[in-house]
C-alpha cells in the first residue's frame, strides 16, 4: 500500500448539496424549501412559535426568584489583605475598614459593603470591620491573633412625608 492509494471508506464523506443550481439538479427553483410562506424565506425567527397555541415556555410554571435590587458587595480575600500589609499599603496596627481598603487599592470603590472570604493565608494580627465574613476567614484571622467585627450595611434612607 502506498500513500497515494489511501482513501476514505465508501460513504464516509458526503458531498454537500448545491442548492438553487437549476431545475435539472433536483434542488433548483425553490431550493428544497417548498412553496411560499415564512419558512421559505430568509431570516426566519419562529423558534418558540407554536401556531398561535400558548407556547410551552409560557404554559409551564416558573420556579425560582430573582432579587429585584440585590446588594453589590466588594469581595475581598484574606490573602489579598496580607499582600497589601506586606507591601506596606495597609497599617496592620490600625482597624481595617472599607475606607482603608480603598486607600490601599484593595477595592476600587465603596459599594454596599465588604464581604471577607477565607482564600489565602494571613500572618498579621489585624482588627477588621466588614459587613460579612465567612467562617474560614474569621477562624484564620483569630488564629493569627486578630479580630473580626461585623457591621451592618447602610440602608438607603427613605424620604418621610408627614
> What spatial form do the alpha-carbon principal axes imply?
elongated
SS elements, strand count: 6
CATH architecture of the domain at 74-150: Ribosomal Protein L15, Chain: K, domain 2
Helix content: 10-25%
Question: Which fold name is given in CATH as the topology of the domain at 74-150?
Answer: Ribosomal Protein L15, Chain: K, domain 2
Describe this structure in words.
- The chain has a domain at 74-150: Ribosomal Protein L15, Chain: K, domain 2.
- The protein is 18% helix and 12% strand.
- It contains four helices and six strands; from the N terminus they run H-E-H-E-H-E-E-E-H-E.
- It has helices at residues 56-59, 78-86, 98-104, 135-143, and strands at residues 74-77, 95-96, 114-117, 127-130, 132-133, 147-150.
- A three-stranded parallel beta sheet has the order 1-3-5. Strands 2-4-6 form a three-stranded parallel beta sheet.
- The longest helix is centred in the middle third of the chain and has 9 residues, at 78-86.
- It starts with 55 loop residues before the first helix and ends in a 12-residue tail after the last strand.
Amino acid at each position: 500500500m502506498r500513500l497515494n492509494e489511501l482513501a476514505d471508506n465508501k460513504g464516509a464523506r458526503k458531498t454537500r448539496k448545491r442548492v438553487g443550481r437549476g431545475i435539472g439538479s433536483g434542488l433548483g427553483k425553490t431550493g428544497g424549501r417548498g412553496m411560499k410562506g415564512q419558512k421559505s424565506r430568509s431570516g426566519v425567527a419562529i423558534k418558540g412559535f407554536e401556531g398561535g397555541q400558548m407556547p410551552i415556555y409560557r404554559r409551564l410554571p416558573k420556579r425560582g426568584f430573582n432579587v429585584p435590587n440585590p446588594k453589590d458587595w466588594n469581595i475581598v480575600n484574606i490573602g489579598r489583605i496580607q499582600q497589601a500589609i506586606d507591601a506596606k499599603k495597609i497599617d496592620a496596627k490600625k482597624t481595617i475598614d472599607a475606607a482603608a481598603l480603598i486607600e490601599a487599592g484593595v477595592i476600587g470603590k465603596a459599594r454596599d459593603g465588604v464581604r471577607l472570604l477565607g482564600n489565602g493565608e494571613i500572618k498579621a494580627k489585624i482588627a477588621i470591620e466588614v459587613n460579612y465574613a465567612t467562617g474560614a476567614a474569621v477562624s484564620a484571622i483569630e488564629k493569627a491573633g486578630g479580630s473580626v467585627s461585623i457591621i451592618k450595611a447602610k440602608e438607603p434612607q427613605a424620604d418621610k412625608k408627614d
